[in-house]
Protein 1
Amino acid sequence: MLDFLNRIPDLLDRRVPDSGRLLLVAGAVMLAVSIFLPLWQIHLVAPQYQEGLDLYIHSHKLEAGNEGQDLTEINNLNHYIGMAPIEEEDFAEMTFIPFLLGAFSLLALRAAFFGTVKSVVDTLVLFVYFGAFSMWRFYYQLYTYAHNLDPRAPMDIEPFTPILIGWKKIANFTQYSFPREGSALLLLTVLCFAGAIWMAVRQDHAAYEEESEPESATA
Amino acid sequence: MQHVKLLFLAVLTLGLVGCGSGSSSSNSNDGAPASYVPPGEKDDYYLFYSGGHSGQVFVAGMPSLREIQTVPVFTPSPGHGYGFSKKSKEMMGEYRWGDVHHPGLSKTDGTYDGRWLFVNDNANNRVARISLRDFRTKQILGPIPNSMGNHGSSFVTPNTEYLLVATRFSVPLPKGSHAPVETYQENFNGIVSGVDIDQETGEMSVGWQVKTPPFNWDLGSTGKGPSDGWAFWTSYNTEMAHDSLEINASQRDRDFAAFVNWERAEEVVQNQDVNTRNGVPLIDPAEHEGVMYFVPVSKSPHGIDASPSGRWIVASGKLQPTTTVFDFEQVKTAIENEDFQGEFRGVPVLNYDSIVEGEVPVGQGPLHTQYDGEGNAYTSLFIESAVAKWSLPPWDEETKQDMSQAVTDKINVHYNIGHLVIPGSDTKEPYGDWLVAMNKLKKDRGLSVGPEMPETSQLIDISGEEMEMIEEDYTAPEPHFAQAVPADVIDPIEVYKQENNDHPEARWEPENTGVTRNGDQVTVHMISKRSQYYPDKVEVEQGDEVTFHLTNIEQVSDMIHGFGIAEHNMNGVVAPGETKTFTITADKAGVYPFYCTNFCSALHQEMQGYLEVKPQ
């Protein structure tokens, strides 16, 4: 273990092999594509809404099913419990997250260009922070909407926390919340980064073995 | 789908027989499962019944026969807010009812296209167009000039070029002039009208009319294939009697059908060779050759129906137990050869023997004939209370010698059938699985509801060799004819999209609503949504005329909001995304609540407001 830690500075300076750099380029592309795909979906089902009401969260916009009508409908229903109307304007992060994703795409390309483990690790660490922040923001938004209920609302219900992933029963609605293809791409990007690092570690190790082998043969 | 249901039926029936109840004899007859549509499943066909003197159209599903909707046409319907809004009031004019007899679906290339349904008003000489996009009446045309009692409509030509109309009653022309009824033969006339349909908008206008002797025109149909460009009507009272018609109009053994070449009529009018009367070009068929021919048909005929191929024209005389089949190919030859047996008031009478293909002894009181597209015809028998199934020509020699062999099946219905309908029978490609028999009387068929019994409709499976009675249901007074169309031909909209709302007074934001005054004219721009009106207080002075422009800003299906004002004879009903305009006179001082009449949400009951009328 200590041995591994001691080797880290050495690892960071190693070069990512070409196949790993290709992975980084793939990651950059996926990051760029994810900007245009939904990251998350909230699906609400009730006896009178058998076909369900859908909200799609993109990095840069809030989209609703039925040509946007589902959001109006969700807000119409929420006004009975005094929940503020969900509006795209409330999601300030939607103005900068797409650019951050773009920046990460560029960072991934940069890492592919320089091909050092160090640059990949930097990008990965920053990206994980970014991912955690985004999830927290999303959770915080849901929490805020469902906790700041107007006391004058026609229906009195306990403040609640909508579920981030999975399903939950709220009054007569079942809320389903799950990641969509945009998030899948982001997860794949993380795997690409990790894969590139792993390849660098493996490749140099192999190279080391190769180099050392003739020595032992002569021994 | 149908096969699955039939299979299900077969299994179920076997299951029942297997139970050994002993009295399985009725299993093949009660057959309810074949028409059973389970909860949540949908019917295969829309069935449009004319509503007779209710002035409405009833929409049912088939095969379940369950009623789905009423479309008000000539009669106010507070449930639909029809007859209360400015537009529907204007459309209905001064009349409060109509007598809807024959619905006709629009066609393209001889098949149903699901655009419009046309219906007639026998009482007030009107025709109406219902859009099948939103199942609403869009136009009422009439009273049609010169036309009195347009029973003989609404027959749609193969590409919806025309809606053809013929008068049941004859009056002195121009309408409104007087002549003693005793001078009926000299001074009275009937009319055949071609109502022009705008292909884009469906807008109807009277294109031309043909003057006829004072016969009573009855049922009709339009040609197709070899008979495209033609229309056919039967008549009764070629005796031209003016009183005691029951006796006096049943004297002649043969009456006349009119074969009208509407393409020729159109041509005559385009050549501008005709005088107009009351703004409509009126063709005298004696002066313009080729517009109209008379054909002798058996005594007091009723229905006349062109077969899907358009070659066979089938007419039934209700007082003669046969149905007559004419060969239109022979009709064309007879016209070319001027093979006439005479003329009546300048109109040639075609030689009966030259054009008749055969007389089929279907049974007592034949009225109407429908077709399954497989070469079979089905004729309703009023007196016999039955439906006869028979084969269209060509017939083999043996059948020609003994026409009774053409009749292949017969089924009893319960009490005096009138019309019957097979989906698409008047098109070139009928959908021949079902037949609906519309019975004019109903006795002991269900729970009694006092003297005013509903009529019955009976569903008959015609997909096999033998007809089979499957289902029975009741209808409000009083369907005459019906049209049926596969569900997928119609593509209804359920919400009026905000961007398509072109009402100039539409409002979508609460801040744009309000009350404005101009003299004693008060205009209210109001919106409705779950569960509120904006504004929910309207102050006016006694005597003001108050116009509400109400926009329902909902954009989801079925979220209808009503607008009833207490003690003001007003109930507006506004569909999602629609704006409607209503006017009331605030002539009584006081405070009058208005409220949502169409259940909308958990807080529907709270959806209300006040109209304050300040005393002068």
Note: Residues 1-31 of chain B have pLDDT under 50 and may be disordered.
Protein 2
Amino acid sequence: MKKSSTPVRDPAGKTRAPSGGADRASDAAGPVAPAWRVRTDPTPLLPDERPFRVLGTRAEAAADPALLLRLYAELVRGRRFNTQATALTRQGRLAVYPSSTGQEACEVAAAAVLAERDWLFPSYRDSLAVVARGVDPVEALTLLRGDRHTGYDPYRHRVAPLSTPLATQLPHAVGLAHAARLKGDDVVALALVGDGGTSEGDFHEAMNFAAVWQAPVVFLVQNNGFAISVPLSKQSAAPTLAHKAVGYGMPGRLVDGNDVAAVHTVLTEAVDRARGGGGPTLVEAVTYRVEAHTNADDATRYRDDDEVAAWRAYDPVRLLEGALRGRGLLDDDEVARVARDAEEMAARLRERMNAEPVLDPMDLFGQVYAERTSQLEEQAARLRAELDAAAGAPGQEEAR
Amino acid sequence: MTTLATGPAARAAKPATMAQALQRALRDAMAEDPSVHVLGEDVGTLGGVFRVTDGLAAEFGDDRCTDTPLAEAGILGTAVGMAMYGLRPVVEMQFDAFAYPSFEQLVSHVAKMRNRTGGAMPMPLTVRIPYGGGIGGVEHHSDSSEAYYMATPGLHVVTPATVEDAYGLLRASIASDDPVVFLEPKRLYWSKSPWSPEAPAAVEPVGRAVVRRPGSSATLITYGPSLPVCLEAAEAARAEGWDLEVVDLRSLVPFDDETVVRSVRRTGRAVVVHESTGFGGPGGEIAARVTERCFHHLEAPVLRVAGFDIPYPPPMQERHHLPGVDRVLDAVARLQWEAEN
Ligand SMILES: Cc1ncc(C[n+]2csc(CCOP(=O)(O)OP(=O)(O)O)c2C)c(N)n1
């Protein structure tokens, strides 16, 4: 390795702006402009100037009470799921848990708007959406518990594996939706991504493919203010993340991510549009991550308690509860009943997560290829011998 | 071999972690040379998820230690441009598997720029990547990606295993006029040893291996996260009558044939130990080089102890995958080649 102080040649001195010519456009006698291939679609940039809301607005009266009550129960369960999972990290039952407390409205709505045949493409923070879609909670948590990468069968509930690398699931959603349409199936894919994830190249490529192919896909950005420690202002200079849709040629919608009725409405429109052949939509839900990034993160390093407190007060569960009570659709008895249900769900989850998972180390070789290679056969035999030896001489493994 | 500092400075040494030594190396490099810039995800306010960049933004400002948008290709691609304009970027990739989006920039541009411009455009940049398993991370947080980087001509690939080396090798990497992939064994981040930041011990330059434990009956060739495993195995092997020499490579590219060959010619037997997969992994290259240069001195084939050839397993299963002391000792026992055949 050469260490020297060879200065890189003065780069500034070498750059020279190309000598500018006359402004040809204004030169009437100049050459005629060729047939430009420029699309000038007159569609307005974005329909929403501010995040779209339903609760507390005139639109609320039109919302279906039965749907709102169902969403309320889901929100309460979702919140309880988050607090339970977080508690399980403290007991060492989960290796890590990225809480979606404060974001339950997005998670619940994402699952609720999909038909059974549709697909959900979750990101690592979206266990709640996966559970709300019907996946067994314990199976949804195996990634975070550490016993399996994906504990559920993706085909059974049409839920792709939780994606840890950010935004990489988005092109998959586009491809799946495209394939379904090629086969003549009216399947829609809904993909979840964070505000930080919108900076990745994969986000751009997915959006572009989706728009060019008019794929039946909906992108839901949960803008919760931070990518670990990095605030939105350092992530994007766009007026809103929904504006990004404009450049790709697809509709962008901005919605209040704590108003579950609003998220449900906007996503339903987007899913219907996709299913009807109208192509993709980008929805930005503005919300907040009230807990730390994960249980391992120290959020006080990068944000104020005041900001967190303000968002805690603007809580998606209380927002809906207040609206429902105001309309006489919810009383103390019903609130208590829903809370009891959620408590039972949490107790079952706790109990099942407390059971030590039964793992077979030989599973390491089980699903690397459809058929095991001879090298893997050899390695599996070696591990089997090690395990047998350890079983024969208990304590020996620990002793080393 | 490492020259350890003696005298007052050494006496002043207090236990420091590898993460602290890395942080200090960045700080000292930035203080000495205004062209050194740190960039990456969460490196500013948070100080990095492993706190290696802690305090740098406060001391040197956001322009010198920059929280970037979340985009690895963008981070490394802009670092290429910064290097073109005379800066020395030090890029942090948050975890091994999250460096993959930047692979195009690394392979097509970082590694080749000097060559394709006939030397006119060097790439004095450092890419720091926490790598390896053993910390109970979920998938994509434990990859051993060194073989990909080793297979790319134009890159230096460096990996410290001690607190002194963490400091010394990072300083040397930042000072290098060539691009360095600086692999940080994340399970050693919190390992402590006495170290004096005021008078850091001198270390061998990049490209030199060191003998961490002299021995006569076989050589363990290793690096990064597997060094402590090999040292422990060497202790355990004493009971069986083996006197094992342990060589810490420190740098995979360039490769120090000299130190390795000198050791193996003396001991006559060698085992390469790493947690990366065995098939197509670094051990194959190392074993081939040793065999080419030491064939007539070898009493047994050069063996490899590596991770299995599987995607990195979930945390509850990783102990079965990672080569531990037992597997190293088992290989050492198999070095009784001539007796068996
Ligand atoms: C490609 C990639 N780079 C880096 C990371 C490490 N990482 C995990 S979560 C995270 C922040 C994600 O922020 P955002 O997309 O806003 O989602 P949120 O966590 O807020 O839900 C980062 C940088 C990753 N998982 N994948």
Note: The radius of gyration of chain A is 26 Å.
Protein 3
Amino acid sequence: MTAREDILSRIRTALQDSPEAPQIPREYRSESGMETEKLIELLVDRLVDYKAQVAVVAEAEVPATVASLLEGARSYVVPEGLDGGWLAGMDDAGTGGARRRVDSPAEPLSVTDLDGTDAVVTGSAVAVAETGTIILDGSASQGRRAISLVPDHHICVVKAADIAGILPEALRRIDGTRPITMISGPSATSDIELERVEGVHGPRRLDVIIAR
Amino acid sequence: MTTFLGMPALPAFGSGNLFAGESFPKAAHRELGNAQLRANLGHATHTIRDKRQAVVSELPDWEQLRDAGSAIKESVMARLPDLLEEFEKNFTARGGVIHWARDAREANEIVAGLVRETGETEVVKVKSMATQEIGLNEYLEEQGIEAFETDLAELIVQLDHDKPSHILVPAIHKNRTEIRDIFLREMPGADPALTNEPPVLAMAAREHLRRKFLTAKVAVSGANFALADSGTLAVVESEGNGRMCLTLPETLITVMGIEKLLPTWQDLEVFMQLLPRSSTGERMNPYTSLWTGVTEGDGPQNVHLVLLDNGRSAALADEMGRSALHCIRCSACMNVCPVYERTGGHAYGSTYPGPIGAILSPLLTGIEAEENSSLPYASSLCGACYDACPVKINIPDILVHLRSVDVDSKRGTRKVPSQMDVGMKAASWALSSGKHLGLVEKGLPLGRLAAGRDKKIKKLPGIAGGWTQSRDIPAPPTQSFRDWWAKEHKSAAPSQAAPSRDDKETQQ
Ligand code: SF4
């Protein structure tokens, strides 16, 4: 007998009393019914609580905000599908001489290249106000998972329309089979005496730009 | 469906790091002597407990989420074979490879074989209970493969050649100074000027592991959830070490217990609300990664999953105990447990400490296994674990159930009645009638004699001595309640039976 057959038959034997699968009570909240302003306010509050920096700006101000956040960075990476308008504040060489690198699945940057890159700018698929979570699903504006992981500074643009109130609303908007990363604040650990320390292996700095 | 003919197969129990090397009372007694451990633990468990309480109270529908979580898990157990097959179909359709392992040895061999196929001799590891349970690191080492733990707490424990003592914060028993000393001693190239501040120590770990992450070709992980309807796996973490391992290497090998399934993508909305709040007391953990087989151009292109039984089917066969498999390893139960708080995780011997360990380990190994039969007694049955459990596992009930299984399993195996048997016999006689009890109570003053001047009994003889090893017993009252009642009611009408001042002492 293969291990597979063996295990499946053991489980069937274990369930000889034929337990019934209960109805799942789903009385928990599935909608928040929150207005946009409230969503933004809550998301900001949560993100700040996680020690992320947040700027709420009009869509037209995104490029200037990105540019100012990239100040001091020598290089940054963007996924090929990032809204070009968001980078309008910078020429291809980038403001202050920051060099732009474009990553795509067809022409991926090496891990070493990414490690030598100071920052990354991505979009996002959806955000959850109540938990302060930003979800990336690997689509063109967010790129491969590695690019938002290796550089030490992540600048993430969230469109106000993409903010959901609570987790069930957000997950309904996502295709679960995509490579998904949920981000709630910068990398953190609480392994030493339960004291929270921001920044271990993931980006130590997370800047979120909420674009109305 | 298979039809069953003849005798049902014997349950196949688990192997690996599931056994207590010595009985819980013995181990607990030793650990109780460690004041530093108790101080570290007390501080840590109380901190998480308070944080958890705060974020749980924030959610108006917490109880509804628990109800849903509990029902989803119950339904997973009832439909486990079908769900496993559904998951397998979907994961495989997207380029993942599934392996099945009956026990620890088989799982270890599969992982080692997969690593060997890549030609590598090093792997990076995401913290995982399943690989702890099967003793994967030790096995790989025997095979000439070095496994690097990348979770900070796991790294601390690994560097110190110690064992984890908590399922969420494995190094919870160590304080910052102890951790600094471990780094200085065991981490090549550690800065001799290293201070004991947590941010400094975290940065040292970052430096130490950075090269490993960026060059590793093979990673090994566990999984928090597996979604049957999409074939998706999920890892929930904080530091980004998980993301590093799950996305940068070429080969990813995941080891997961067969009970970790959830039927649908929608069910994730329940568990991603229950887990972070219950475990670290956060609204959401910093990072969660989800992957479904292979995604071309993004992440590992060789993706394997080892589905582990290792006693889970045996636990499933216990109708009362099977809900222990609902556990999502949040650790809330240990953070509220008065016994865990004092003894620490090592006393439980197995990979799974605390209240859940006290039921899960003997269910996975069989109650007769080594010293695991003492684990169901490692509880005061106060019920705090049940209240805290996000999936409503009734741990106290299962503890009591397992105690009876233990007693039954020992019945008839001894020729000479044990002290416990004799004691139980005597108690049954005493409690069977008021007259008997009255007779026994005449002996109470003897107890006072044994207690001495400070009115505390410090040492009882025989098996009762186990109790007094770590506790004192107050001396019995001079008079039994029954005697007091009789006396009181001879002189006073029942309605005026309020005790006088002089009787105070008898009220204990
Ligand atoms: S038994 Fe419940 S509380 Fe304990 S670790 Fe498992 S899920 Fe958490």
Note: Residues B 278, 327-333, 356, 388-391, 393 surround iron/sulfur cluster (CB under 6 Å).
Protein 4
Amino acid sequence: MFETVLIANRGEIALRVLRACKELGVRTAVVYSAADADSAAVRLADQAVRIGPASSRRSYLNAAAIVEAARQVGAQAVHPGYGFLSEDADFAEICADNGLTFIGPPPAVMAALADKSSARALMSRAGLPLPAGSVAPVATAAAAAEVADAVGYPVIVKAAAGGGGRGMTVVRHPAELARAYARTRAAAQAAFGDDRVYVERYLTEARHVEVQVLCDSHGNGVHLGTRDCSVQRRHQKLVEEAPAPALSAATLDGIAETALRGALEVGFVGAGTLEFLVDAEERFHFLEINCRIQVEHPVTEMVTGIDLVHEQLHIAAGVPLRWRQEEIRLHGVAVECRVNTEDPERDFAPTPGRLERFTPPGGPFTRVDTHASAGYLVGPWYDSLLAKVIVWAPDRELALNRLERALEEFDIAGPGVHTTIPFVRRVLDDAAFRKGRYTTGLVDRLLAPPSPLPSTAPSPLPSPTPAQRSTTTPTPRAAPAAEPDVSNRRTR
Amino acid sequence: MDGQNGRPDGDARLDGDGRPAAQTAVAADGRDDVRPDGRHPADGHGETDADGEEVLVGLRRQARHLLAELPGPVRRIRLCSGTTVLEVQWHPDEAAGRSPVPPTPPPAGATPPAGAAVPGPPIALIRPPVPGRATVRAPIVGTFYRAPEPGAGPFVAVGDLVRPGQPVAIVEAMKLMNEVTADRAGRVVAILVGDGQPVEYDQPLVELDPA
């Protein structure tokens, strides 16, 4: 095992990795930006190195600064968390060149899988079913139209290098295609420096189901079951659960086994996630593979009892997997929701500010992963994830009740600060969600005016007031998001 | 997890070149009972603030004299007006090479958790800047060098006048030399970091008395 690991991230995931390292007797070092000098991770780490100003481009995305910090602390390995440099093959290679173990897949595998187009080609060769569409990027608007005509509308135009919910456009009519094609290419060039796009059939009422895999460097791998992440806004997840509900055991097993086969065939090493869309007939289609730990990993930990960050560290240190597939057992149901500082009434716009109150819930089988505390300043520089509430129960109904109870306890307040808690509570109240029969269209449906249900009648939008208590903020209807598609992609 | 910042391979790397550092400890009041940590045994002596300031001025003057006479690059200076101690460590060889591996890192700028051993001050820091005085700060995390190349004269020395934009040091990060320039005119009062030492982003490097 490593003696010292450098944690190249911030927020709750830095704390999560730090805890795993400490539990394994590994010295911890964190990097931090000038904005995070007072963070919990900095306080708890054995060492911390300030690597840059608040701007993530000059701190958490600054590969040179992070490698310098790793050298300064004598780290043997770098854990990138999620986001930032976690799926940057160049960074992984720079680490290797400097004698550092990047905790993730080999750089060449990452490079091949980071590109959506080449990942599709690789997985197609490995026998995974893809959504209908172009495997290779389409070079002209005419070629895009040809693909769209062949697979049928609606289609989605996606940047090969896309991520973070950016670089994709849903096209519902042939007349819109040429413009959408040009716009997506331009956006992809601006955001990712790569204007290649491809076209695939867009499934409007699909489930987003993903599979957690662990693969070691000796060719062994296991899958840890499925997660359903269909509750998304702006292609970003809000509620996740394990296992995916209301699917047949044959479908769940089929997705999981297919995913593991794909991961092993492309030489994946580490903790990874293969994402699929599942249609109403329970046919599944491979979307992409994520080469990192994910925000929603705790639900898998709760149903398997396996600490995924521990496993990442073991795998990176060259330890063979400690389980065979038949030893993996899934128990009960786990549900996670993200508590973001966002205003669901203003298209989930971030609402940074100082938290005057922050009292997370407690109770049995209730886990809160957070870096925040009372007095914490949610700055404008980074993402809006404030906490994750994860609950476990023997069955789904009790798990949902437990999550409702936990969210009711969660007290967060600060001037101008809103959270996603009221919106998540609406999701938990939704009848289709309760039955486990929901799709990526759920959030749009909840946001669509007007509601015929008197029990959730709209109330006027309250203007933010000092110390507004977000847990009790009414959640009136809002106009639908400008971009109605909420599938096929999310960040973490 | 002991909260310390030592490296597993020991202090030999502190020099970067594998050689031991020369060391001396000078008690400014002539006493010779300086402990290894540079402090006098407790003797109940007290000082007024004015006395302390005067002693500090004297210590600074002594430090400047010592620096001018040292046979090799400075490794560490310790000034301590409360117990009147001046301690200087230096590399014995003038031609001491650059460190291929940076030495012991500075610890976090944050308070350690309760119960953890309290890390010492960053090894890179010769002394903290005087509050309110102008400083030139590190533009990036890396290794601090006073001279453009090994064996060359330093960019600036204590007492030099600098103008805005003038290079005063370099910070090496990932084999790239990042020039550090003064953002104002002033006289160099102190070099706050030892040559070849690791520095964090925004760490004060050079103290200036604005001209």
Note: Chain B touches chain A at residues 1-3, 5, 7-9, 101-102, 105-113, 119, 140-143, 173-174, 176, 198, 200-203 (CB under 8 Å).
